[in-house]
Amino acid sequence: MAKGIINEAIANFRFDGVLVDERPYGSGHINDTYLLVFEIAEMGQIKVILQRMNKDIFKEPVELMENILNVTSYLRERIIENGGDPERETLNVIPTVNGKPYFVDSSGEYWRAYKFITDATSYDQVESADDFYQSAVSFGNFQRLLAAYPAETLHETIKGFHDTRARFQVFKKAVEDDVCGRAAYVQEEIRFVLQREDLANFFAELLDKKEIPLRVTHNDTKLNNIMIDNKTGKGICVIDLDTVMPGLAMHDFGDSIRFGASTAAEDEQDLSKVSCDMDLYDIYAKGYIEGCGGKLTEREIDLMPMGAKAMTFECGMRFLTDYLQGDTYFKIHRENHNLDRCRTQFKLVEDMETKWETMQSIIQKYK
């Protein structure tokens, strides 16, 4: 990123003090993120986060920032009502000099800024079972605080993000078109998907019949989107709100299990290492249900195992679709990388199917 463009962005936000340090920050792959440090006379230093939003992924950055501003403002009110600290327990958007929540630079790129959350850390990997539990409580608490928020008023920042039914149709077309001539080599994987059309349609059909509620969901419930307090070890704030939009609580729960309770990396080639760890599943289920504080319906809680299976299946299907289409969406770092990723997810789905009764009984234990 050109220094002049960053300086242009910095000059257009309401930052206090003198800039003394600026550096790239974090491990995210989508937005360009910088940590800025400002010196304020007599008061020491303050830190802020500056981000350039990725317009390739998020086509409507103005709508995205409208979502974030509305949700964080609502969270601030709930946190204050509960006697919490709104400076640390939700993201705080810093306005531009013109009072907007975003700045458009001279090259047409969109920028935003947040107050930095001090004395807290986000972890890329589960280093302890308690970290995983804390992330579950935090994401559950996020759901609890936003339970009364009218989800349908939010914009969809990525259209059809977890519409597994629609993604199944895209998959079938990718098989039919076979633009790279790869379908012949992955007949087993294609069969795996086609045999589970009911799973692809499951949640969409329940939504059609209005048997489950639309919620404000995070849609990227990985551990590294939780800030954990350095002193207490407790999860204090949910971050990365770009994919906050209308969705299903089961999807948020399920994506956490898919990523956090797997015994192997997302692209592990030795499938004998891949399984769904029932101890981690148990820990997360306990924390998430506790965090939700009674705001979910009984049906939503009963469907949590299905959320885990459906999200894992959807992710595997997306990897396979991308492989068939020529690896155009997910970045690959070796030949057949998306195929390896898809096989890992499908092994997890199979493992969940063998442990289905256990997964259901764990949920009932905490209901």
Give a description of the structure.
This protein is α+β, with helices and mostly antiparallel strands and about 375 residues long. The protein folds into 2 domains: about 5-120, 2-Layer Sandwich (Phosphorylase Kinase, domain 1), CATH 3.30.200; about 130-365, Aminoglycoside phosphotransferase (APH), C-terminal lobe (Aminoglycoside 3'-phosphotransferase, Chain: A, domain 2). About 45% of the residues lie in helices and about 15% in strands. It contains 13 helices and 10 strands. It has helices at about 5-10, 60-80, 85-90, 130-145, 165-175, 185-195, 195-210, 250-260, 280-290, 300, 305-325, 335-355, 355-365, and strands at about 20-25, 30-40, 45-50, 105, 110-115, 120, 215, 225-230, 235-240, 245. The strands form 3 sheets. Strands 1-2-3-5-4 form a 5-stranded antiparallel sheet, with no helix packed on it. Strands 6-8-9 form a 3-stranded antiparallel sheet. Strands 7-10 form a two-stranded antiparallel ribbon.
Secondary structure blueprint with pairings:
Elements: H1 3-11, E1 18-24, E2 32-40, E3 44-52, H2 61-81, H3 86-89, E4 103-104, E5 110-115, E6 120-121, H4 129-145, H5 164-177, H6 187-194, H7 197-208, E7 215-217, E8 226-229, E9 235-238, E10 245-247, H8 249-260, H9 278-292, H10 298-302, H11 304-325, H12 337-354, H13 356-366
Antiparallel strand pairs: 1-2, 2-3, 3-5, 4-5, 6-8, 7-10, 8-9
Helix pairs in contact: 4-8, 4-9, 5-7, 5-11, 8-9, 8-11, 9-13, 11-12
